[in-house]
Amino acid sequence: MSNTASTADNLFPDNNPGAEAAVELVGEQRAAVTALLGSIGEVVTELGARFEAAGQELAIVGGPVRDALLGREVHDIDLTTDAVPQRILELVDGWADAVWTIGIEFGTIGLRKDGHQVEITTYRSESYQLKSRKPEVRYGDSLYEDLVRRDFTVNAMAVRLPGGEFVDPFGGRTDLADRRLRTPGTPEDSFSDDPLRIMRGVRFAAQLGFSLDGAVKSAATGMADRLAIVSAERVRDELVKLMVSPSPRVGIELMTDLGIADHVLPELPKMKLTIDEHHRHKDVYEHSLTVLDQAVDLERQRGMAPDLVLRLAALLHDIGKPKTRAFEDGGRVTFHHHEVVGASMSKSRLAALRFSKDVVNDVSKLVALHLRFHGYGKGEWTDSAVRRYARDAGELLQRLHVLTRADCTTRNRRKAAALARSYDDIERRIAELEEQEELGRIRPDLDGNEIQQILDVGPGPVIGRAYKFLLELRLENGPMGKDAAADELRRWAAEQG
What we know:
InterPro entries: Bact_CCA-adding_enz_type3_sf, HD/PDEase_dom, HD_domain, HDIG_dom, NT_sf, PolA_pol_head_dom, PolyA_RNA-bd, tRNA_adenylyltransferase. By secondary structure, this protein is an alpha+beta fold. Helix content is 54%, strand content 9%. The strands form 4 sheets. Strands 3-4-5-2-1-8-9 form a 7-stranded mixed β-sheet. A two-stranded antiparallel sheet has the order 6-7. A two-stranded parallel ribbon has the order 10-11. A hairpin with a 5-residue loop joins strand 12 (326-327) and strand 13 (333-334).
């Protein structure tokens, strides 16, 4: 703990961790903490007084304190205490409107009071054994012991209740001002305690715009393989937060540069130096990051909320290129059917990370469809082709619009403008057909019961074949009307014998 010893000596007389001293705040920082207490209302003040009367400590800790000092909106109320979980339950019994114990195994009790949700966690430290996927939790008896085991100094600050004294033993305020991520102790000890903190560091970099301290970077690189003992679900949750952050590219680049991606998304670093035949000025990895950036920008321009599915598809849309790369005469590089291979690869990777089935299927479908537009040319597609494009995309059509536009990274302004005009045109045509025909709900002009009546047959495979035939007609010709569809169905049936 050499990087924090002098700070701790100043705050804790005789280096006694039990003798926490409050840190004096001034100006905007004092106002921020006052605002934090005010935004939470009487709930935490009452709770703090309740714990104090019982001889127990209670403090706001971690994220809420950090966000208040950054001027960010505070959503979660995280509290820490020297009271063990059973004692917490006794102290909130009859006071809280509701209590839940789903996290009691890790020392956490949740409650709701006057519309506020609060989590109270006993002072603790936790660590992983070499091959263990579950941390060992030990309760502590001082706020200092709890703060020193936190992931980063900016999350190792606290506000005592009910008095509002500010505690910052590791210089979190200074690191906030410098927008830097350091660990309270050595980063090796911190990452050993919980390897997921490696992912959390790159996520905070993307989410808060912070940089990683040099020692933190070195430890992350040297210990990235420890992520293997962390459950896929916890890794996924950090990746989700990174991807929907304001600057996901920052986190992705850090993951790749520090060797973290090798253990989370190993397909990403493999895209480096794989020259894209359409964008020779960039390799596929750089191109994919640019597409991600442009997708984020287009989201904002269109008033969309951060879209996990769209952003994952933008990052992974060319994931199949390394496997499909081929060299032809004249030095030309091709990646035939990389969208098909990429759809399969993205499905496998996201499933391994325990993403929901809907996310897995939607991302892989966007990857499979991302090249379809390139056959549009200058508007040569028939209405039938436009209908099929919209129908194949289905509910993902708006995301496909954004992904396809983002996939244009050429520096040739004339070419970029032409592509933009072409996509403006296809969106216009889809909108017109949508207004006329409800493209998202295209069905044949006859339903299954009507097909049975016209053909005078019961349920069976022939009805499915007939339905498919009529659907193709509908896509090709647009609405036909029931009489015309019935005539075509009878003609088809005769040809089928």
